[in-house]
Amino acid sequence: MGVVKSLRLSVILAKSPKHQPRTVFKSGAVQVLCLSIMTTSETTQPLVPSSAPASAKSPTPQPTQASAADLAAFDADHIWHPYGPIPSPVAPKLVESAEGVNLHLADGHTLIDGMSSWWAACHGHSHPKLVAAAKKQATTMSHVMFGGLTHRPAIELAEKLLKLAGPGFDAIFYSDSGSVSVEVAIKMALQYQQAKGHPERTRLATWRGGYHGDTRAPMTVCDPEGGMHSLWTGQWTPQVFADKPPARGATEEERARYLAHFDSLIDDSVAGIIVEPVVQGAGGMRFHDHELLVGLRKLCDKHGILLIADEIATGFGRAGDLFTTQAAGIVPDIMCVGKALTGGFMSFAATLTTADVARTISSGPGGGIMHGPTFMGNPLACAVACAQLDLIAEGQWREDVPRIESRLRDQLQPLAGSDAVADVRVLGAIGVVEMQRPVDMGLATAAAVDAGVWLRPFGKLVYTMPPYISTNDEVDRICEAIAAIVAAEEKRR
Ligand code: PMP
Predict the structure, then answer these.
(1) In 10 A of CB 51, how many CB atoms?
(2) Which of 240, 272, 319, 391 has the CB geometry, 3.0–4.6 Å to 205, for a possible disulfide?
């Protein structure tokens, strides 16, 4: 209750600029003041979200309009959001609950989650089978350390995931986020080369336009110029960057020329190649041909280096196939999965590798993989991931993804006729409208929300990855929202 009361106080203070700065949590005296203020009539409006413990709730099930706005204002002043400033000039929208394709906001709006909450909620929110798995596991054991201990959910998940990934994969490392799984993948490649007697192989080769996460090593292989991490350019030893891959539909000759270019950059300093296969996501939402992956596999074999496939966004059907590398007919040496691994239920990721890589690393100088996070192999996440993989195995997505793909294609393609639009592309359950210039985020968000849809454009890109369970009507509504953003941008020109 103390924290809740402090929160209420800070919200009250936050309403009044003369009470700046708003650091009420730091002062014991202010905590006391808080308790006295709590007795005043000003605090009778509930300021806690409905997800708070029952003891902290008012009898009213939903916060009022005003209280939701206050909470969002507190958030804007004190809580970091992705790539955002503090204070944030725009208060975030307060979500009270999410189920199926819908996000229910505190202001009474219901929005279709056109982003699957960043590729993650592939079966929609609060899927009953995932909820049941989490509940069951939570009553048994939510976490135990993974050093020296193991548990059934971790073993069951490894069996399922290695089987699904296909022949060639033999060992698995569990981590707490996609970025960490990429950190681990990069460590694997470097440790492998050390164990092979090549400590000079310390760099990674990749193509421009990529994105692999926000922790240090993944940032070094993100696009160094146009990407989110250009701020850090020059602060570490540069990796080896090939040009952006040719767009999907390239000729054989174009692909061969590109691969020859990539080949020419690989020298004795390179330990491996890391790419997002088939879909470059946050670095530009570009698609390329599966055949390029076959070419990269050959380059790796030729140079004795490892191929790392970051399938964090593409894995589990998003681009039309279970895994894009599988569809290309290749086996990478290392593969990262995350996001939809738990169906968006919680943060969790895994790095899969071959017996050769796992055993070579284990015979090398470190005697094992040099990574071991506290929450590695979290049983709750493993249990939910097992249930998610069961849904994937049931295979409904194999009908839904092509259905969504053709719906997106039919409805987004006409937008290419707008002067404000540079390109429209669709692959699997991913639809992208690239504008001629960066969109106005405020205008775009308002246009989408008015259409009852949650979208989060970035730069020139307006895009959607609908949950696989989206009905045709819901996909249509997402497309209408994208069309509304295009119309708003046309007016702005
Ligand atoms: N790799 C790719 C391809 C991604 O799209 C992302 C997330 N946007 C990451 C890695 C990082 O994953 P996380 O945000 O879970 O750390």
Answers:
(1) 9
(2) 240
DSSP 8-state secondary structure symbol assigned to residue 413: G
pLDDT tens track for 243-256 = 999 999 999 999 99
Cis check: omega of the bond before 87, within 30 degrees of 0: yes
Distance CA 47, CA 36 (A): 17
Residue of the nearest CA to atom 15 in ligand 1?
178
CA 63 to each of CA 16, 131, 156: distance values in angstroms, whole numbers, following the listed order: 21, 25, 41
Residue 409: count other Cβ atoms within 10 Å of its Cβ: 14
Closest CA to 185 of 161, 163, 215: 215
Which residue in 126, 191, 152, 165 sits closest to 371, CA to CA?
191
Which pLDDT tens digit goes with each residue over 194-253? Answer: 999 999 999 999 999 999 999 999 999 999 887 667 788 788 889 999 999 999 999 999
Which atom of ligand 1 has the smallest separation from the CA of 213? 11
Q: Give CA–CA dist 227/442, Å, rounded.
A: 22
Measured distance CA(409)–CA(411) in Å, rounded:
6
Closest atom of ligand 1 relative to the 180 alpha carbon: 16
- Residue 255 contacts by C-beta under 8 Å, 6 or more apart in sequence? 246, 289, 291, 292, 295
- Asked if 170 contacts 334 with a C-beta cutoff of 8 angstroms, the reply is no
Is the CB of 211 within 6 Å of ligand 1? yes
Catalytic residue at 211?
yes
In the residue annotation, 192 being an active-site residue is answered as: no
Read off the pTM. Answer: 0.88
